[in-house]
Specification:
Helix content is 35%, strand content 19%. It is built from 15 helices and 15 strands. The two termini are 26 Å apart. Its cofactor is FAD.
Length: 463
């Protein structure tokens, strides 16, 4: 049967684009979570939307499970093939259509690298604001399938807010052309939004019409040092009330030290601090600069900040950003168990204190790395695996503590997955963020779109 499948796929895409070697199935069968053993049947790499349709039709007829694959930069196991699935890689669908400067839109195939889209927008005097550490590797289709967020959400929102149209191949091989780039379209259910964040469980995203905007002007960065977690919220409140922020990020001293030990970057200042916030804003006038300095003086006088630095050039701004953006890279050689969690910004203070208490009590022997997009209520809690501990034992320990963390999040009306998706890692905890009735409806929607359960089965929801 496997030979027949390979031959059928080769007939669709050509022999060169069906991969079966152990190295290929290992590479394409896992994501950045590093928590699952890949076991893919094969990898098929279509070069056109028509080829995607033919592959999906064949898979549906023969009940072959499909795992859509983009840049595989996810951290929740959503792109992992662990049970003999066929990996449908979209990296050859990488064309960008001409930017429409009147509509301020661009049409991208699913395999376009996020950074490629950002550069194309910049080349045309426009801006794509969804930004995160993996932009050089992640692909647009995967960004949409997980509703990716990142460092600019406080100002520009999530991926969902920039998708004006989608082309999606459904489980029976049909091609849906959803919303067609319209800003206004009041004609019933907007199916586009079902596929955004669906993690490939309802269909294969093959193309998107994406909204662009004007570039920000004179972005300026401040890094401030804090002694206590409780200082984060008053600092955020002070700056948000006085400036139109484009980012408000958070990281611990332990996270900073990881970056400094792996990269040749200057420390922001000499004063010791347990925690740091990075603030970015458009510095459009002298009045804006004065307002920023006034806000800094206010939090300094109130004892919320111990020291700070403000960028004096674009180069310095990039160096300050690197202190935050290179955290994930700096711990990537280790194996982190990641909690990507969120609450409303007004609950950040109590959220931080509660989770930190749980972490100190339950993980006394583990190294904990905190960072996140705290301006929109999103924190990344990274528990690092000790070298002496086996992976299975480490994961089991982390899972045993998850209910304590997730119950706290549930009480605050938060989310167990702010931007990384659910995948395999969070699937069994979905009801901490979604009601029983919501999960039941999600299962029913899955059944309507994918009755044979071939679309990324086992991810997001357990049927």
């Amino acid at each position: 049967m496997t030979t027949e499948i390979i031959q059928a796929l080769e007939k669709i895409v050509g022999t060169a684009h069906v991969l079966t070697s152990k190295d290929d199935t290992h590479e394409y069968g896992q994501d950045w979570s590093k928590l699952f053993t890949p076991d893919a049947l094969a990898i098929v790499r279509p070069g056109t939307i028509d080829e995607v349709q033919l592959i999906v039709k064949y898979a549906n007829e023969h009940k072959i499970a499909l795992v859509p694959s983009g840049g595989r930069t996810g951290l929740s196991g959503g792109a992992c093939a662990t049970n003999g699935e066929l990996v449908l890689s979209l990296d050859r669908l990488n064309k960008i259509s001409k930017v429409n400067k009147v509509d301020q839109t661009v049409v991208c195939e699913a395999g376009v690298i996020t950074e490629q889209l950002q550069n194309t927008a910049e080349d045309n005097g426009l801006y794509y604001p969804v930004d995160f550490a993996s932009t050089g590797s992640s692909q647009i289709g995967g960004n949409i399938a997980t509703n990716a967020g990142g460092i600019k959400v406080i100002r520009w929102g999530m991926t969902r807010d920039w998708i004006l149209g989608l082309k999606v191949v459904t489980a029976n091989g049909d091609l849906l052309n959803l919303n067609q780039g319209l800003i206004k379209n009041a004609t019933g259910y907007d199916l586009r939004h079902l596929f955004i964040g669906s993690e490939g469980t309802l269909g294969i995203i093959v193309e998107a019409t994406i909204k662009l905007t004007r570039p920000p002007k004179d972005l300026t960065v401040m890094v401030l040092g804090l002694s206590e977690l409780s200082d984060v919220y008053p600092v955020m409140e002070t700056f948000q009330q006085q400036l139109n922020l484009t980012a408000f990020e958070f990281f611990s001293d332990k996270a900073l030290n990881k970056v400094l030990s792996h990269h040749d970057l200057p420390k922001p200042f000499d004063s010791p601090a347990e925690y740091y916030v990075l603030i970015e804003f458009e510095n459009e006038s002298e009045q804006t600069s004065e307002t920023a300095f006034s806000a800094f003086e206010q939090v300094l006088e109130n004892g919320h900040v111990v020291d700070g630095v403000i960028s004096q050039s674009e180069t310095q701004a990039q160096q300050l950003w690197a202190l935050r953006e290179r955290i994930s890279e700096s711990i990537s050689h280790e194996i982190p168990y990641k909690n990507d969690i969120s609450v409303t910004p007004s609950n950040v203070a109590s959220f931080l204190e509660s989770i930190n208490t749980i972490v100190k009590e339950k993980y006394p022997e583990f190294e904990i790395i905190w960072f996140g997009h705290i301006g929109d209520g999103n924190l990344h809690l990274n528990i690092l695996k000790p070298a002496c501990l086996e992976l299975d034992e480490f994961v089991a320990k982390c899972k045993s503590v998850n209910p304590n963390i997730f119950e706290t999040i549930q009480q605050l009306g938060g989310s167990i997955s702010a931007e990384h998706g659910v995948g395999l890692v969070k699937r069994d905890y979905l009801e901490y963020s979604r009601s029983h009735e919501e999960v039941l409806l999600m299962k029913q929607i899955k059944q309507v779109f994918d009755p044979n359960n071939i679309m990324n089965p086992g991810k997001l929801i357990a049927l």
